[in-house]
């Protein structure tokens, strides 16, 4: 049956890919967003369906959150301050990412919401000792953003014990795709490489380029959220990794983007000591609990990004 879904931060990057999927399946969507980075043109387009409402408010205001929550069956909590901004302004990060999340989860519990899907992050793991990174592995959040994501998971568990709501905390790995700001933390290296390539210059890689990330396309992220909304309650109340399970090194990324842009250059390596960090998700739980697996490989996804967005 169609549901009424509240999506906090729904006018942002991930929301721009999630909301159309919710509307396509017949849901009514209520977006709560302060519109500091939201796309009003897209909101106007969605409003044409007659099944979308924008509540221009901030998750830090508990009364506004409670009012927006009334009548909702499900909640997707995306609103957050980014990882790089959290270090520049820890106070704002705690205010939005912890206090704001608590407001959302408390209101969901009070209003009898069935399911909350929380946009958590692979950053809760910190620097991994082994790959792939499992949900049951050690957690070592290193920044206010990472600490807030871990705290959000714990708050969800707290409210679930005291109400009828069920939840999933989806630990997103390195999300990328059309619509993402070029200054976003995990796409800055992509944007830098593409800008140089389009100027006929080789990408410059620190060290040997062995540092890696698990890049997951935003379309697959949106699919995972929809599946988490629909998953059986008996399988809920868990964190779930959402990645590809493949760690793509910076050197591999550079060569993929060279091919996507279509230039004849070779990467240039800059001798420099770097702290080699690697990330790859264990996604067996996502397949088992949600029936989810990625559908867009890095090569295809980077070509999509180059074709549509960066330039």
TrEMBL record:
Protein name from the UniProt record: NAD-dependent epimerase/dehydratase family protein
Coiled coil regions, renumbered to chain: none
Span of domain NAD-dependent epimerase/dehydratase: 5-243
A Pfam family reported for this protein in Swiss-Prot or TrEMBL: Epimerase
InterPro entries hit by this protein: Epimerase_deHydtase, Lipid_A_modif_metabolic_enz, NAD(P)-bd_dom_sf
Organism: Blastococcus goldschmidtiae
């Amino acid at each position: 049956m169609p549901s009424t879904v509240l999506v906090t931060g729904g006018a942002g990057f991930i929301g721009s890919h999630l909301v159309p999927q919710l509307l396509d399946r017949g849901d009514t969507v209520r977006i709560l967003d302060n519109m500091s980075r939201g796309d009003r043109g897209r909101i106007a387009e969605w409003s044409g369906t007659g099944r979308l409402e924008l509540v221009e408010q901030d998750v830090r205001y508990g009364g506004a959150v409670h009012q927006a929550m009334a009548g909702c069956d499900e909640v997707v909590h995306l609103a957050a301050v980014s990882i790089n901004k959290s270090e520049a302004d820890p106070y704002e990060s705690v205010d939005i990412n912890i206090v704001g999340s608590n407001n959302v989860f408390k209101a969901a519990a009070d209003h009898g919401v069935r399911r909350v899907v929380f946009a958590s992050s692979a950053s809760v793991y910190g620097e991994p000792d082994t790959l792939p990174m499992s949900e049951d592995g050690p957690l070592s959040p290193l920044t206010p953003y990472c600490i807030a994501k871990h705290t959000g998971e714990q708050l969800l568990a707290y409210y679930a014990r005291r109400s009828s709501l069920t939840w999933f905390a989806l630990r997103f790995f390195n999300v990328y795709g059309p619509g993402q700001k070029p200054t976003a933390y995990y796409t800055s290296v992509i944007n830098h490489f593409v800008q140089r390539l389009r100027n006929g210059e080789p990408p410059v890689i620190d060290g040997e380029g062995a540092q890696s990330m698990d890049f997951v396309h935003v379309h697959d992220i949106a699919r995972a959220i929809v599946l988490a909304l629909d998953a059986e309650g008996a399988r809920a109340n868990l964190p779930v990794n959402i990645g590809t399970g493949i760690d793509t090194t910076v050197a591999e990324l550079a060569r993929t983007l060279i091919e996507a842009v279509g230039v004849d250059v070779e990467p240039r390596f800059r001798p420099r000591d770097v702290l080699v960090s690697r990330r790859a998700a264990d996604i067996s739980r996502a397949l088992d609990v949600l029936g989810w697996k990625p559908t867009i490989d890095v090569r295809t996804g980077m070509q999509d990004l180059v074709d549509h967005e960066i330039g």
